[in-house]
Design goal:
Length: about 200
């Protein structure tokens, strides 16, 4: 498309969506394809969720909502985090948005200035680096391998942190590797950050 901003034209097309599109085209040609790209469930939305959405429309939940989300919903999320995850977050610490990508875009665009560095452990979900580019930040990729179960080590993190570090993505369990950091591994990474003296944000996706 002509006339889009340099910011937008610098972004790469989502490889996930490109692969998904390709698999649809191949399926349309009658080719037997197993599509492992988009993380789409292989079942439809359960009936009770459909019913609740229809009920909400009939109850006229169709006007502008408060920006962070309806208070009852924020309270319900706070209760869920306490009950199921043993996490204490008040309703005033929660913001509802349209999916994880929207939340991450909000966070990156709110935090990252031109030239700020964001640490991205690889392999990573495709949109992280594009969001940082959009905010004119610099991606600092930490490569991993099967030898470390595709997890970064405290030594690697120590080398990656600079005075320009603003944030780090942490996806555990990870998409795409499935790797899960243990409590001890997370504590070791937290210790490196604490000792660095750099004030940075951890974006836990
Ligand atoms: C690690 C990760 N983060 C974020 C997203 C985006 O999630 P959403 O569809 O809720 O925007 C995905 C989607 O696959 C993902 O795998």
């Amino acid at each position: 498309m002509e006339n889009v901003s340099q910011r937008v034209s610098s972004l790469a097309i989502s490889q996930t969506l490109a692969m998904s599109q390709k698999s649809r085209e191949m399926q349309a040609q009658g080719i037997d394809v197993i599509n492992l790209s988009v993380g789409e469930p292989d079942f439809n939305t359960p009936q009770h969720i459909k019913d609740a959405a229809i009920q909400a429309i009939n109850d006229n939940y169709s006007h502008y909502s408060p920006v962070p989300g309806y208070p009852q919903l924020l309270k319900a999320i706070s209760n869920k985090l306490k009950k199921e995850n043993n996490l204490e977050y008040g309703a005033d610490q929660i913001i509802v948005s349209n999916g994880a990508k929207h939340s991450l875009a909000n966070v990156i665009l709110s935090l990252v200035n031109k030239g700020d560095e964001v640490i991205v452990p690889a392999p990573y979900w495709v949109s992280y680096v594009e969001l940082v580019k959009l905010a004119e930040g610099t991606n600092v990729i930490i490569e991993t391998s099967i030898d470390s179960d595709f997890k970064i080590t405290p030594e690697q993190l120590k080398r990656a942190i600079t005075s320009k570090t603003k944030a780090m993505f942490l996806c555990s369990p990870s998409n795409p590797s499935g790797s899960l950091y243990s409590k001890g591994e997370l504590e070791a990474l937290a210790k490196v950050i604490e000792e660095s003296g750099v004030e940075m944000y951890i974006l836990s996706d």
